[in-house]
Amino acid sequence: MNSYDTTLEAGAAGSFYTLALKLATIAYEQPSKIVTDVPGETNGNLQVVWGPVLDQSILSGQYSCMYITLDKTTGVHHLVIRGTHRDSLFSWLFEDFSVGETKPFFSLPGLTVGRRAEASLGDIMISKGTWRGMTYILNMRSWMSKVGLYMTALEYLAHIKAKSVIVCGHSLGGTLTPPMYLYLNYLLNVIGKRNCSLGLVSFAGLPPGGQKFATYFNQVFQNAYPWRIRNTLDIAPLMWLNLETVLNIYQSNNLSLSYVDPVRGLLDAYFWEADDSGITYTQPTRAVDLPGVFDTRWREDHFWAAQAAHQHGTDTYKALLG
């Protein structure tokens, strides 16, 4: 990671962040376009070496996508997790907003061996939606022609003895970025003794789990650099923390969410589920807030959701990064 500038100020982001956002944005494309856009958007320096793998079905639509790139000049790999596809009701319901139930982080595939080893932190809980999203991408397999095998992302990184991996994603991808970082660290470094340098950048991610999960992440990551990037007018990183903060986010711009707006009813319902989950949803440190710019096109009360969608988009984050 020493090849990247990890300083971050609004309008003056180093390449570490702008590259991560570029790859997270490309992840929303179709797999064939991802393969061509990655080298095309990075002056040929990066290429896709695993995936892209897309999970989809007739009933659920597209609900998960992930790929790995290699920087040919630095040897750094990026593991990129796509956010929720806008048309995937399945992802909205069963990943992003599935917060009423929780699962232990160490019950993820391959991690059961470590649960007793981390018993000092008690049950490290994540939302069932986070657990489900992680399980989907952990079980993805990509055909590796050089070895003649289908491999998971973990198997691939272990096979090539990866020296440096940066996990990144936007929205749901940003939510899954910290648990994926911890997952790779535990299996590659703690169990595998591989001494792989791991980093992460999360854009617009929701809280993946409770206080104990955040504490565990903070202890492992040790506040190495700002990694959680948030537009101050984006509601997503505030979800499940405080309902009033979300409802009043545009109040200074005279934009309110009506009590009769269906979005208000959904927020009330999902915050109630989060409050009833048995954990206190908490964002890990360390975050950087990019001062948001209110879009005056969406200033009427019935455009509250449109304003929120605009503030959450990758184009908005790109503009704020500069």
Structural summary, described in words:
It is a single chain. By secondary structure, the chain is an alpha/beta fold. The chain has helices at 15-26, 31-41, 89-96, 128-138, 153-159, 172-191, 211-221, 243-247, 262-275, 304-312, 314-321; strands spanning 46-57, 61-71, 77-81, 102-104, 125-127, 142-144, 149-151, 164-170, 197-203, 209-210, 228-231, 281-282, 287-290. The strands form 4 sheets. A 7-stranded mixed beta sheet has the order 1-2-3-8-9-11-13, with helices on both faces. The longest helix has 20 residues, at 172-191. The two termini are 21 Å apart.
Search tags:
20% strand, globular, two-stranded antiparallel sheet, alpha/beta, 11 helices, Rossmann fold
Global shape: globular
CATH 2nd-level architecture? 3-Layer(aba) Sandwich
CATH topology, which one? Answer: Rossmann fold
Q: Can you give the helix content as a percent range?
A: 25-40%
Structural class, by secondary structure, is: alpha/beta
| Major β-sheet annotation | 7 strands, mixed
Question: Strand portion, in percent?
Answer: 15-25%
**Low-pLDDT segments, ≥5 res:** 7-13
Mean pLDDT: 88
Strand-helix topology:
Elements: H1 15-26, H2 31-41, E1 46-57, E2 61-71, E3 77-81, H3 89-96, E4 102-104, E5 125-127, H4 128-138, E6 142-144, E7 149-151, H5 153-159, E8 164-170, H6 172-191, E9 197-203, E10 209-210, H7 211-221, E11 228-231, H8 243-247, H9 262-275, E12 281-282, E13 287-290, H10 304-312, H11 314-321
Parallel strand pairs: 3-8, 8-9, 9-11, 11-13
Antiparallel strand pairs: 1-2, 2-3, 4-5, 6-7, 10-12
Helix pairs in contact: 1-11, 3-4
